[in-house]
Amino acid sequence: MQASHERSAAIEKAARIMARGELDAALRLYLQIFDNDPHDWSVGNTVGDLYVRLGKADDAVSHFTMLAEQLMADGFAAKARALYRKILRLQPANGEALSCIKNTSLTPEQMLDLYRYLKLTRLVEERIVNLYRQTKVVGGVYRSLGQEATAVGSAYALRPEDFITPIIRDLGACFVKGIRPREIFAQYMAKAWGPSGGKDLNVHFGYMDKGFIGPISHLGDMIPVMTGILLGARLQKKEIVGLAYIGDGGASTGAFYEGMNFAAVQRLPLIVIAEYNHYAYSTPTNMQTAVRNLAERAAAFGIPGHIVDGNDVIACYEVTKQAVDYARKGQGAVLIEAKTYRRKGHAEHDDQRYIPEGEIEYWEKHNDPIDRFEKFLLDQKIASREKLDEITADVMHGIEEDSTWAESSPMPEAEGAAYGVFDNSIVPPAFRPKVLEQ
Hints:
It is a single chain. The protein is an alpha/beta fold. It has two domains: 2-89, Tetratricopeptide repeat domain (Serine Threonine Protein Phosphatase 5, Tetratricopeptide repeat), CATH 1.25.40.10; 108-408, Thiamin diphosphate (ThDP)-binding fold, Pyr/PP domains (Rossmann fold, 3-Layer(aba) Sandwich), CATH 3.40.50.970. It has helices spanning 2-19, 23-36, 41-53, 57-73, 77-89, 108-133, 148-155, 171-176, 181-188, 222-235, 254-266, 298-301, 313-328, 359-366, 369-379, 385-408; strands at residues 163-165, 242-247, 270-276, 279-280, 283-284, 305-309, 334-339. Strands 1-2-3-7-6 form a five-stranded parallel beta sheet, with helices on both faces. The chain has a two-stranded antiparallel ribbon with strand order 4-5. Helix 11 links the parallel strand 2 (242-247) and strand 3. It is globular, with a radius of gyration of 24 Å.
């Protein structure tokens, strides 16, 4: 009762200070009150409004977004939708659209290379969706719309001999490692000329010679797999770095913790990119983990943890390059959290009814990774609009050719399913026993 009385007195005091026009002092007091009870919608809303009145629109957006996520987790969907509508009306603090960091070691040619990979990722996925709607795709389609910069920027920081193990929303990293769009199209359509010969789908294939380890569907399990690869490389005296991706949901699995702990103890050169895209399938991140930042978990393993703007492709490159250099020198593993947003559902069949109204529109309008990078390239006079259009046209031409090639390729013969499951130089292919055919 005493705590409740003190809280009420503090709120009344903050309201009086605000009425006198002392907005900075009122904000400080309201923040103290809110920190003691972050589930108080009324106080949280007042904090955001004070940020707006003080001209701190970026802080207001960040605060309202956090509050909206908490309201959704607490079951107050209507209040969360109202907040997202308010967020949409706010503009960035200086009235300008978001761009990218300017302090970079990248050359202009490398930046245009990054732009090509970003456009390639988005346009290939758009073509895959079209093929899916024509029933030419076997299985599901999992898009990276809105978070392409994380995969592209991080993978670009690696050497050709380094290894990656992506997950379903890291198609851009596959392209950076040399996988061709025609291989992705053929894989999605389960064609005989696809990387797995029609045996598997999506990015569930691998190219050891390109340093690409295909993922499995058990999220988190590729972290210990990559630690094993890196331990084997150490025994062979190979100086490679491994980059493994994980989502915010997969980062709550036991396999993630076991793999990270082993890599930390062995001081293996493992870089883990934890993609905080706000949802694990349909579960908001704050409903399946109590930490606000996934990078905080690095402390449990005794390794460095970094947080990066996952929609800034240059920032993603720079923080990964720093981590790669650290790991390659024998310092050990690094955890990087990329703050981004998944603008499509878990897969194309997911109607996203669990997303608050206005949330997707906000991210599309204010924080699209390709829009931000285009603004940067134009503002810094690294490229003209004509040059960017030329790159896009060239990417589209390649997609047309590769899509046509994949569509015209044959479906696999049924007998092919028996081959390549095990090493057939040791284990012969397993065909259906004759007795079962009678």
